Amino acid sequence: MRRFTWVALALVALTACTSDKKATPEQGEGPYLKGSGVLRVLAGSELADLQPILDAAAAATGVTVKLSTTGTLEGVETVVNGTAAQQYDAIWFASNRYLQLHPGAGDKIGTATKVATSPVVLGLRRSVAQQLGWTEHRPTWSEIAVAAGEHRFSYGMTNPASSNSGFSALVGIAAALAGTGAALTAEQIAPLTPRLRAFFAGQNLTAGSSGWLADAFLKQQQEGKPVDGLVNYESVILSLNASGKLAEPMTVVYPSDGVVSADYPLTLLNGVSEQTKNNYAAVADYLRRPSVQQEIMTKTLRRPGVPNVKLGEQFGPAGGGALPELPFPGKLEAANALIGAFGDSLRKPARTIYVLDVSGSMKGERIAGLKAALTGLTGADTSLAGQFTRFNGREQVLMIPFSTKPGQTRRFDVPEGDVQPTLEQIRAYAGGLAPGGDTAIYDALLAAYAQAAPLIAAEPDRFTSIVLLTDGERTVGADLAAFQARLPQLPKIPVFTILFGEGNVAEMQQVATLTGGRSFDARTGALPAAFKEIRGYQ
């Protein structure tokens, strides 16, 4: 068994670096490698579209791949602190580049097998791309930033602190604007701030995941109020075009100075058993076979991860031409400084309204969990993800507690510079929350909209969102039907609902859907984790 393991792993390592000359057994060119049991994989959420291919891999190899999804920073943190190895056999993120910047990360991971690639590019509605002249001319990122700053187009992009596509876009744009051809340093970020801020002035849609961003973009197109484009994986943009659901197809714009690409390395964690190594080798070998690579390309619109698999005609740039890779930061300090600068200085500032249930049922552990969640967002959470999910500089934070009726609204304006005094005020406010009374969910939600309306009129460029937390059902005041009747007259604000306690799951999911938000499940996990996850969408 040991001899088979290392032969198999050597084969995987070889195919990861050279062309895979083997065909499938159906083509008569050799048997599949075999394993048995389950390969537990911690993966990026966008890889869920590979499930049919993984099902076929299980039939061919005897290995069932069980995917558990996570966000970029959370996933990196679990690997670095060693908890990933306690629950999983392998990781499968869009890229390992950020992970590998962390000291000691190399000791946690073993063999990595590149499966596919997808560059982060700009997709624009065809008419907008034509107006900008980008159907015939490949602009630089600098030209794109200038046009965005002049509001000649708008776009959506994921939050770099939550999603690899957003982080890759931020890295690529910053590297291109720096223009040195070398890895970005922390010292270069401040001088780039005005040009980066101009680029982000065009961002009108944000999200914590690439998939949700694509869904939100599609919904806006169908409602006739679209943003003009997306900064996202090429595969996501091509998939939207292929869906036939867009009111207007997108043109993929490939910046002439380069991109940052995902390469989806299936990566074995160190310390696993010999059987797990066999299982990994079998799955990796299957995924890199040319026929499977062709299937991945056809079904997911990701580029092949091995040479000598012909690229489909739908992939650009038109007429061929180079698609160079822009340099990734060489030090963790630079990468983290870039993420931090995005939140505090570069992005459009946010306006976040928290509608918080403090009714009698919240006594005990539930109110303690709520206080811990809010306190974590003030910087008390020093984890990797916590560092970048705290309240940002320039953010407007409103708190509306409710029980029998909505309580008094408390507003906090976080400055761009010294954020700590304001964060301490929010922390003190959270510590003073006290439960008691009934549950007027929709009265409180309508109060949040009433508070938001004049603020949006005064500063329409802020990203405004509402977070609704309740552990029960409405007992007094307006009901869901009354809220729904009022909704057409209210500002367009997404409501992110948290499923918690005995709250009405169906109603909370309906509120999220009606408003263009999303629900987050905190019934089986810690409440602070749900609050952190929502931050990617604000």
Textual characterization of the structure:
The chain has 21 helices and 18 strands. α9 packs across α14 (332-346). With 538 residues, the chain is of the alpha/beta class. Residues 1-24 have low confidence and may be disordered.
What percent strand? 15-25%
- The number of E-state strands comes to 18
Instruction: Give the low-confidence spans.
Output: 1-24
Mean pLDDT across residues:
93
What percent of residues adopt helix (DSSP H or I)?
A: 40-55%
Radius of gyration: 24 Å
Class of secondary structure makeup: alpha/beta
How can the largest sheet be summarized?
Answer: 7 strands, mixed
Number of helices: 21
Distance from N terminus to C terminus (CA atoms, Å) equals 51 Å
Bulk shape: globular
Provide a concise account of the structure shown:
The chain is α/β, with parallel strands linked by helices and 538 residues long. It contains 21 helices and 18 strands.
Provide key terms for this protein:
6-stranded mixed beta sheet, alpha/beta, 18% strand, 538 residues
What's the layout of helices and strands?
Blueprint: H1 2-17, E1 37-44, H2 51-61, E2 63-70, H3 72-80, H4 84-87, E3 90-92, H5 97-100, E4 109-114, E5 116-125, H6 126-132, H7 141-149, E6 155-158, H8 164-178, H9 189-200, E7 203-207, H10 210-222, E8 229-233, H11 234-243, E9 250-253, E10 261-262, E11 265-269, H12 274-287, H13 290-300, E12 303-304, H14 332-346, E13 350-357, H15 365-380, H16 384-389, E14 396-402, E15 410-413, H17 420-431, H18 441-458, E16 463-470, H19 480-486, E17 495-499, H20 505-515, E18 519-521, H21 527-534
Parallel strand pairs: 1-2, 1-3, 6-7, 6-8, 13-14, 13-16, 16-17, 17-18
Antiparallel strand pairs: 3-11, 4-11, 5-8, 5-9, 5-10, 5-12, 14-15
